[in-house]
Design goal:
Layout lengths: L4 H15 L7 E2 L17 H9 L5 E4 L11 H11 L4 E4 L29 E4 L9 H17 L3 H12 L14 H20 L5
Parallel strand pairs: 1-2, 2-3, 3-4
Helix pairs in contact: 1-2, 4-5, 4-6
Length: 206
């Protein structure tokens, strides 16, 4: 029926999106969802070029970065992806994901993400450790990074939407001055984590 996989996927996604009344959040995960899966590159991928042309503009497209688990994200890469998809990507960040190797747990600060990325993103999702309580530091330091991005955001029209999300983070440290420091973010997260552990220890029956 369809001349390509991309056109088939775009057609189905568009139909579902319209049937649901074009919701404000509707995410599509492409088959090529990171640079290493694109042939020969994101900007020259016939698959991604077709999706960019065919998907309705209200549909968000998920992207994980250079690899499935990306140690770094840069503005240059996001610009390339935005150009081919004709929309800002939604980053599905697998930095802390350990479902592929459950012998490992990632407890370091949110890092490897260049400053000034926020204006290039439609959103950011964090794929955490499988162990629930191990995610205090990842989520807390993500909040610190996020607040730093809000302060340095050069595009106020983007900041409004992101600010609404920032309120939901509930960071007890508030909006700290200065650029994001992974080490400082880690220290703040550890202080809050110890306080949370002590609070839980005092609860009846714990």
């Amino acid at each position: 029926v369809f001349p390509s996989l991309a056109q088939a996927q775009a057609s189905v996604a568009n139909e579902v999106y319209q049937e649901l009344g074009q919701p404000s959040i509707f995410l599509f995960c492409p088959t090529e969802y990171c640079s290493s899966l694109c042939s020969p590159s994101p900007s020259k991928s016939c698959y991604l070029l077709t999706l960019g042309q065919e998907l309705l503009p209200g549909i968000g497209v998920i992207w994980t970065g250079p690899k499935v688990v990306s140690q770094e994200l840069s503005a240059t890469l996001l610009e390339e992806v935005e150009s081919v998809l004709r929309r800002q990507p939604v980053i599905w960040d697998n930095l802390y994901a350990n479902d592929y190797d459950c012998r490992r747990v990632f407890l370091g600060p949110y890092t490897g993400r260049a400053p000034g990325l926020m204006p290039r993103l439609r959103g950011l999702l964090l794929n955490p450790n499988c162990e629930l309580q191990a995610n205090f530091i990842p989520i807390h330091t993500l909040g610190s990074w996020f607040q730093s991005e809000l302060r340095s955001c050069a595009h106020p029209d983007h900041a409004g939407t992101w600010m609404e999300s920032a309120a939901a983070l509930g960071d007890s440290q508030g909006m700290q001055e200065g650029s994001y420091s992974p080490q400082e973010a880690l220290e703040l997260a550890l202080l809050d984590w110890v306080a949370e552990i002590n609070r839980q220890a005092l609860e009846p029956g714990r």
